[in-house]
């Protein structure tokens, strides 16, 4: 019995253990919902002075610190109360200025709400912020200021700084944050007598002083309680330093053997000229320089500088009437090899006619140039042109006309920037007589077309220009030309020619033109392609028209129904051709009419052309067709009348499309 009872007890204990393990395993496998808890808070810095505006950062983390779970939060100070609160996760961490906290030891806590539950206040959600500074007592006012420099020369500038403007470190004059202070600066000249006003700002600069040892006083007033304090410092103003001013740049180059003049002036601090004495030292400008000589004159004339030394450093200073020295002023001088003189050269334009001695026509205008002159080590700055032993020009070119039939000589000399003149160079030339050219031409014809061919000549040179006119109307400037007669009559053909010396002559011939009855008036116009692309040109050629024409009229009927009209007088700049441009795609019909000089039109449509131009089409000419509607007999003209009208229209269309 006891053994059986023992076995039962053991079994019950095992079942109990297994039950506990089962429950434990279920607890482990089934996750519990996280508690709302602040994990950490941090303040940086955690010791601040509320008299100094410093940024204080508040950072924290919690189990619900995310955009989905955080419902609300607030930061609280044990002294200043709620610092900030809200529900936006992005504003949980924040910053405040140290001057916003009350002095004392702040217990700062953070509480958050998530899943409907608030976190507990514990060590993780609490930290300490220590604030020192203003206890609400009156702040002591001190006067901190500097004068930089404390000793200066008359004309120089001093800077006056106080309190927070002082350098290199600000020295506040009160412990208050953003105090309301006013400043009053005064000076006592030579430490005697009354005080003179200087400024009323915390810092300023001035150069309005007089020579002497002066007292400077600064008075600072706290406008919040009318308290003030003041202090005094000395300012020593010495006589001004004279200024040595050397004319020109501080670096010059000369050539060996040239004279260098150095002009200088002594100025006071107001840049007014004053009387001074001078000291000069000439040093060789090199590593380990050596003193070459000293001088004591105001202006220097240096004629002993050599290429061997090459680089010089001229140092100078001035001494005013009080014995005050100026700063040293440097003039660096480079001595180059001796000057090489320039070389003159003459060129003549236009080109000569030829000959061993260049020949030019009588009365020709000649230009003498110097562009080929040169200076190997500088620039040419002056010119002299000579003719008949007289200087006739000092410009770079000389222009003149010559009438005597003889040989002339012109001379040129040039000067470089070092003052050296070149040798004179000469150019000889010969003036020869020029006779007018001989104008002549012959005439050929084929039908109404006439060819005019020049046979003109010039004894001394060449014929260079031509001008053809018919009945005093210029028709061409070519050597040979053609002309189309358009009416019967007597025509005067004139040719004028010019030679290369500018002389001219002319000759005239007369021709009789007799046109047949058919030639007398015959309107003929031909066309370029009537199938073109937008932007292409359409050319009309009137050269085959005979008879005395006054002008032509062209009316362009545009695809949109508008019209453009042109009056054409032949010949134009393009001769007997006239060109139109069609920029827009479509079908254009043209009405071209000749207007005769006698005002009498020919019969029927002999004076009319009517081409159709297809722009941007398929190259085929089309005509619009309109279907005739059937109508009841209402007394209108008979069908035979319409047929006659249609035949007449077809004849007209065939004429328009010539």
UniProtKB/TrEMBL annotation:
SUPFAM superfamilies associated with the record: PKD domain
Pfam family name, one: PKD_4
SMART domains documented for this protein: PKD
InterPro entries: Ig-like_fold, PKD/Chitinase_dom, PKD_dom, PKD_dom_sf
Domain PKD: residue ranges: 433-520
Gene3D superfamilies named in the record: Immunoglobulins
PROSITE patterns: PKD (PS50093)
Record-given protein name: PKD domain-containing protein
Native organism: Marine Group III euryarchaeote CG-Epi2
């Amino acid at each position: 019995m006891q053994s059986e009872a023992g076995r039962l007890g053991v079994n019950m204990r095992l079942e109990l253990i297994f039950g506990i393990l089962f429950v434990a395993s279920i607890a482990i496998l089934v996750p519990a919902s996280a508690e709302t808890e602040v994990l950490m808070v941090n303040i940086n810095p955690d010791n601040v002075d509320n008299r100094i505006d410093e940024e204080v950062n508040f950072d924290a983390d919690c189990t619900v610190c995310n955009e989905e779970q955080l419902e609300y939060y607030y930061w609280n100070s044990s002294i200043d109360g709620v610092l900030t609160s809200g529900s936006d996760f992005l504003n949980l961490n924040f910053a405040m200025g140290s001057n916003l906290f009350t002095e004392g030891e702040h217990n700062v806590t953070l509480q958050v709400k998530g899943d409907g539950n608030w976190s507990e206040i514990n060590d993780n959600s609490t930290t300490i912020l220590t604030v020192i500074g203003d206890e609400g007592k009156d702040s002591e006012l001190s006067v901190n200021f500097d004068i930089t420099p404390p000793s200066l020369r008359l004309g120089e500038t001093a800077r006056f700084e106080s309190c927070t403007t002082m350098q290199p470190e600000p020295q506040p004059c009160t412990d208050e944050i953003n105090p309301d202070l006013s400043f009053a600066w005064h000076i006592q000249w030579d430490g005697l007598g009354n005080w003179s006003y200087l400024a009323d700002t915390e810092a300023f600069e001035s150069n309005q002083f007089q020579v002497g040892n002066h007292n400077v006083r600064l008075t600072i007033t706290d406008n919040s309680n009318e308290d003030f304090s003041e202090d005094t410092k000395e300012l020593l103003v010495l006589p001004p330093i004279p200024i040595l001013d050397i004319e020109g740049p501080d670096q010059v180059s000369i050539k060996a053997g040239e004279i260098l003049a150095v002009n200088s002036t002594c100025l006071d601090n107001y840049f007014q000229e004053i009387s001074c004495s001078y000291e000069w030292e000439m040093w060789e400008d090199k590593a380990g320089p050596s003193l070459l000589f000293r001088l004591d004159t105001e202006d220097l004339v240096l004629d002993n500088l050599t290429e061997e030394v090459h680089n010089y450093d001229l140092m100078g200073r001035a001494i005013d009437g009080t014995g005050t020295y100026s700063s040293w002023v440097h003039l660096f001088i480079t001595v180059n090899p001796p000057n090489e003189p320039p070389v003159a050269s003459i060129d003549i334009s236009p080109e000569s006619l030829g000959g061993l001695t260049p020949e030019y026509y009588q009365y020709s205008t000649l230009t003498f140039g110097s562009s080929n002159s040169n200076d190997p080590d500088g620039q040419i700055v002056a010119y002299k042109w000579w003719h008949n032993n007289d200087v006739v020009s000092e410009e770079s070119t000389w222009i003149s006309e010559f009438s005597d039939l003889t040989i002339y000589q012109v001379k040129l000399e040039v000067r470089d920037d070092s003052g050296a003149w070149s040798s004179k160079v000469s150019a000889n030339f010969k003036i020869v007589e020029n006779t007018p050219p001989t104008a002549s031409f012959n005439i050929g014809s084929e039908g109404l077309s006439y060819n005019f061919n020049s046979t003109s000549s010039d004894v001394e040179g060449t014929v260079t220009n031509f001008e053809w006119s018919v009945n005093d109307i210029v028709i061409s400037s070519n050597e040979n030309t053609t002309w189309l007669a358009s009416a019967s009559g007597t025509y005067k053909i004139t040719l004028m020619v010019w030679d290369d010396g500018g002389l001219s002559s002319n000759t005239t011939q007369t021709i009789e033109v007799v046109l047949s009855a058919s030639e007398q008036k015959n309107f003929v116009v031909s066309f370029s392609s009537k199938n073109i692309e937008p932007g292409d040109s359409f050319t009309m050629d009137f050269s085959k028209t005979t008879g005395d024409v006054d002008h032509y009229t062209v009316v362009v009927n545009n695809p949109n129904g508008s019209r453009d009209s042109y009056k054409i007088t032949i010949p134009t700049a393009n001769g007997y051709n006239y060109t139109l441009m069609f920029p827009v795609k479509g079908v254009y019909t043209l009405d071209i009419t000749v207007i005769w000089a006698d005002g009498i039109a020919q019969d029927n449509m002999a004076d009319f052309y009517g081409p159709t131009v297809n722009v941007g089409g398929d190259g085929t000419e089309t005509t619009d067709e309109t279907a005739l509607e059937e109508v009841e007999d209402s007394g209108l003209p008979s069908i035979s009348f319409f047929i006659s009208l249609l035949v007449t229209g077809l004849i007209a269309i065939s004429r328009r499309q010539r």
